[in-house]
Amino acid sequence: MKKSIIPGFIISLFIGTFMIFIGVEGRTEVVPNHVYRVYLNGELLGLIQSEDELLRLIDTKQYAIRERYNVENVYPPSGLEIRKVRTFNNNVSTVEEIYALIENTDPFTISGYTITINYLEDDSIPHHEAVTRPPEIIHLLNREDFEAAMITVVGAFVGAEQFELYLNENQLEIIDVGRIIENIYWLENITIRPSLISVEEEILTTSSEISRLLFFGTIEDQEYYVVRDGDDIESISATHNLNPAEFLVANPTFPSENILLTPGQVVNVGLIDPLVSVIAELHVVEDVVTRYETEYINDPNAWQGTRRVVQEGQTGLTRVTEKVRVRNGEIQALVVTDRQELVPSQNRIVSRGTRINHGGGGGGGTGGDHGNQSWTWPTNPGSIITSRFGPRWGRMHWGIDIAGTGYGSPIRAVQDGVVILNRFESGYGHYIIVDHQNGYFSLYAHFTRPSPIPVGARVTRGQTVGAMGCSGWCTGTHLHFEIARGPSWGAATRLDPCRSIFTC
Fold first, then answer.
1. What's 52's DSSP letter?
2. CATH number of the structural domain 279-369
3. pLDDT tens string 374-391
4. Contact 295/308 with Cβ under 8 angstroms?
């Protein structure tokens, strides 16, 4: 009996002592510490006692950032996460130690706005420009600066004064001629959201910086030019591969290309590369010069090769009402809604001798009119030039664009010749080239369909060779027309049609 009690008592005593030990130890762990786990980009940096102390230290340490951006507060990196936990772990770091880890790993942030420009597909943009473009991200401090910059950009493309009248609904009614802005918008989807921005990002702090970025695609210094004696906007633009319209956009303080420049003035000659597509829909009434044509009549009593002006030509004047769509200052589409003839044009009439001298004497010339006839305008009367020869948005526009006579209206050969090319290309669309066999060549592009004139066929001056359309890289119904001179088309020099064969 005693033998069985003693071992049991010893075992009970051991178990009781163990339970007391466990109970004492358990009481030291059942009340865990309230601490904060600090993570940076998902990685645990350590534990701290106070979240507020760490945030205050971050704000105090970043005095230089506050001074640089003129902000009141500096915030931890966007990947910083602080979680309040209860733990038995007593390995707590100081806020100074955690701050050092953060500073050496990821930049701090300030409060601002992030602008996202998403580029959407638009049927009115030429195919070669409508390629997939990644979103443009802009970081800035103040939303108001972006709004002011957009007003500057839109005003530069449509005219600051008229844009202000449009915004205030104070546009004047058109009495005789003029234009009214009916609508303004941009193609891109632009979002603005408050955000914490890393100080290592490019953060724009003024509306002028934002305007420069929206105009030129960069805030880096542009190319500038100091005006000299004899300079004007047209000559400066030509020297720097710009057209006058682009010069005015880059220098919005100049109201028109006819303004006089002062020697010593500094002007911006950088090439614009807009980040946004500003669309203006306009109602325009303008007086358009109606060109006269030259008619030839045969005189059997005059010697072949002679000619006589029977009637001098006179230009006319037509008041044209148009709906115009403009993208970043460039006409995309033009539709004529009304025409009113103010002064009729009068054709020039030339008499040509057809009498042949069989006796070998008394002739007034030989060889007929080939190469000596005048040039005829390639479209119907009342058409409008929407884009001229010269630089255009960083590329050379080798011809003129003519619109206003409607989809499917006739395109005519400007002089006698032979068709040497009739094809489709992604740029020109359906087009032909005519060799006038006098050193000149002419090109007609963007037909609605292939020209019915085959390669090798002769065409006469004024003959219809196609229909005005919008095939190829095209932003609206128009004719793209080129003139070149040389021994062959491939070796020819392209000329400005408005200076080489036409007055326009």
1. H
2. 2.20.230.10
3. 899 999 988 999 999 988
4. no
